[in-house]
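INFO  loader      accepted 1 record
INFO  loader      residues=185
INFO  predictor   begin
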Amino acid sequence: MIIGLPPYEERSGKNPTVGWSDWPFLLVKYRLFSANEENGNYIVTPTVAFTAPTGSNAFSTKTFGITPNIANGKGWGDFDVLLDFGVNLPTGDFHKLGTPLLTNVTFQYKLLNVLWPQVEVNYTYWPNGPDRGKNQVFLLPGLLLGPIPLWKRLEWSLGVGYQFAVSDAHPQYESNWIFDFRMNF
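INFO  predictor   done
INFO  writer      dumping tokens
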């Protein structure tokens, strides 16, 4: 289980504003299949994330969201590829929000046992709703630090990346910084 914090957003351009977005309050995952490096170095994990409409008016969907997902990973030595597919299902206002299909592919390389430079490609397609037939593509170069042991099984990790739109068809936004801090146990 992962308990998240709501993102703080800042929008510039036509209607500039700042505020909190909806709260990704819970992510539940279950490892279906996995193997260590000696036996194939892979993982298959279904997840489901839940979002509460707690954000400011400018950034809230005003409805709860459920996002089922299937995540996969495969490693070759210090190089990893992560791939996941999901769909964002609002609990209301389907006609206003649609049900976007989400795909992420991440390429990571481990350096010095704790540094992970990575490049992520995010693709979203709207099969329905007001954005029907539109899509967006983002690139996210980043760097992860960790996991760093603290005590027994308790570890921390930190990540930073800059995400920017490479598609001009329908980006939800142009760019953003992403910071990630985790405590693992």
